[in-house]
Amino acid sequence: MKAIRWYGEGDVRFEEAPEPTIAHPDDAILRVTTAAICGSDLHLYHGKIPKVRPGTIVGHEFVGVVEEVGPGVRRIDTGQRCVASMMTACGRCAPCIAGNHAGCPQFGLFGYGRMFGELEGGQAEYVRVPMADMTLYPVPEGMADEQMLFVGDILATAYSGCHAASIGHGDSVVVVGAGPVGLLTVECAYLFGPAEVYVVDLVAARLQRAAELGGIPINASEHDPLEQLRSMNRGERASVVIEAVGNSSALATAWRLAETGGRIALVGVLVDEPFPESAGRTWLRSLSVTSVTGQTIRYRDTLTQLIQAGRLQPERIISERIGLDEVPAAYRRIDRRETIKVVINP
User: Which of 16, 111, 150, 318 could join 314 via S-S bond, C-beta 3.0 to 4.6 A?
Assistant: First the structure.
């Protein structure tokens, strides 16, 4: 089969790979019909994720049709169209029962190497899906792949960040970063009743897309973002800040924009970045800081219902649709911030 494989920093290739087979009774084989490049794939692209084997198939956002199931699969059938969660979980342990699927002892992440279960990813024609009864979610009749694709990762991540930040009626919210997760965070934030949602970024085209989703743009390349926020927010900082980038500069911006007693949710993938302020300074400012892993399994029912009701339209953030052979060039465009969200049709 054809797939996208990682060989080192800046080196992803379109090439042949072995077709997956059932390895465990609870596995399924999915024929991928739609996939995507996630912003967190750039951490892998930049070589920041340790213990990734050269030749690993990348990608953790994908929808497809079930081609085969193992003898232990009970809820998923061949021929069903399903969206995969970016993570695997058993559904039976105490963390899973509590809704914390990332705490499952069998937690894995597609296409992210040995630290995350050594699972091959979904930027391919086929993918093996462990614990298929939990990992896969049937796409409701009448819904398109692109409507459901992001339920398995970035839409759930955005919603999880808003929930963890306890956005309430009348809050002033700032989203740092107008990439795919940031844009969906804008859309999700309005579900919780804030007074305003501001969006900080350096790229005018991304801020324009954020404005189309209801965000109030703050261009950090033109003026100091704190001054801009105060000029529009009654002289105040924000009660909630959601960091949706995952780098040191965005962290520093998040801390600057939060008011005393404010809430900061860290949604962007962080690897080795230090906090911008000491624990003592953070304590003096009474900041509540929460790190967020998207709860894709926990919230997929809720998100599907919101999409069906027209309250969320996640497909609006898509900027390109490409074939699998075009993916290596698309990684370079994403890295240069020349495009926002790239969807793949294998």
Answer: 150
